[in-house]
């Protein structure tokens, strides 16, 4: 049955599984990752906003520990976390992003569109939105000399590792190769930023929130930089691709977007974030027994707040499985919860808005290419991997 809670069903399409769980078992234990899934909107918000009971998980047994290392910004709490977030967020506030995002993003978008436009067809994820995302965010981190192909391999290997519930040794081999490369290249970037502090995110993380003359060690920040690489490089691109997929599946919304891309781009991007959350799950650990939705989560248990399910809760959103950029705007849970609310939310939305606006402006007659099937995959990280489109070259 496609609605059974298995790793394979989740990877192929988690939404039928989540729909059944919301109706029948809103708190469900998943053997694959040994954690309790919370799937209803209100329950996710209850757990996510109760940081006293449901704190970040620092367990070495979790896949996040294997992929990113511990401690990292997602596993920390208290004063140490506050100081680190201060460093990460320094140049990522909405006000700061407004100052630099156009110069960062629009030239990159236009260059990719210039190369893509004469072809008349392509996979908008791999040919456009993904490379825009990795190039721009890679530049923000300070990885200006690292090729796109390398950055894509990094986050794909890490994403596969996080979702490797079947313990496939080939996945671990690929991950270890990527992690070794990350350690080498990020180590070199660290040394350059140590010798001469600069405006890269690496430099901010090293120096921000620290006493004068003090700097965080490479070992201290590397797990957090891997979190940023994994989430930051892929999330804006996958979110834009998901929004574009939603638009292209509905000719009326495509037409509206083409008619006025500047007016609709951010609305479409935000609806894409709800429709398919690029990062679908955030982990927590219960500090004490906690009763919710008729179930007791025992102290010490791992918990998965399934934002992707919450964002399609019928009790919260009308026709939740339908992409509709004109729906009445209501907050969704894609960017998580404070104090671990996504640092890059302002940058992601601004980059996504520019990418969608330019794509629908510069690719005349943009439409779905029905000669090839649109392909979605993943659950911890989900997106449209093949977004076949055609346009008038």
Topology:
Blueprint: H1 7-12, H2 14-24, E1 27-30, E2 35-38, H3 41-48, E3 54-55, H4 63-67, H5 78-89, H6 94-116, E4 121-123, H7 124-141, H8 148-162, H9 169-195, H10 201-207, H11 218-248, H12 251-259, H13 261-275, E5 281-286, E6 290-292, E7 295-297, E8 302-306, H14 307-310, H15 345-362, E9 367-368, E10 375-377, E11 383-386, E12 388-390
Parallel strand pairs: 2-8
Antiparallel strand pairs: 1-2, 3-5, 4-12, 5-8, 6-7, 9-12, 10-11
Summarize the model shown.
With 393 residues, this protein is of the alpha+beta class. It is built from 15 helices and twelve strands.
What does this structure look like?
With 393 residues, the protein is of the alpha+beta class. The chain is 53% helix and 11% strand. The strands form four sheets. The chain has a five-stranded mixed sheet. The protein has a three-stranded antiparallel sheet with strand order 4-12-9. Helix 6 packs parallel to helix 15 and helix 13 crosses helix 15. It is globular and about 55 Å long. The model has no long low-confidence stretch (mean pLDDT 92).
Average pLDDT reading? 92
- Number-wise, the strands total 12
CATH class: Mainly Alpha
| Percent in strands | 5-15%
Give the C-alpha Rg.
Answer: 20 Å
Helix/strand-derived category reads: alpha+beta
Q: What order do the strands of the largest sheet run in, or round the barrel if closed?
A: 1-2-8-5-3
* Uncertain regions spanning at least 5 consecutive residues: none
Order of helices and strands: HHEEHEHHHEHHHHHHHEEEEHHEEEE
Domain unit count: 1
- Biggest pleated sheet: 5 strands, mixed
CATH architecture: Orthogonal Bundle
Task: Please give the share of residues in helix.
Answer: 40-55%
- Approximate shape: globular
CATH topology: Cytochrome p450
CATH superfamily (homologous) name: Cytochrome P450
- Number of continuous helical runs: 15
N-to-C span: 43 Å
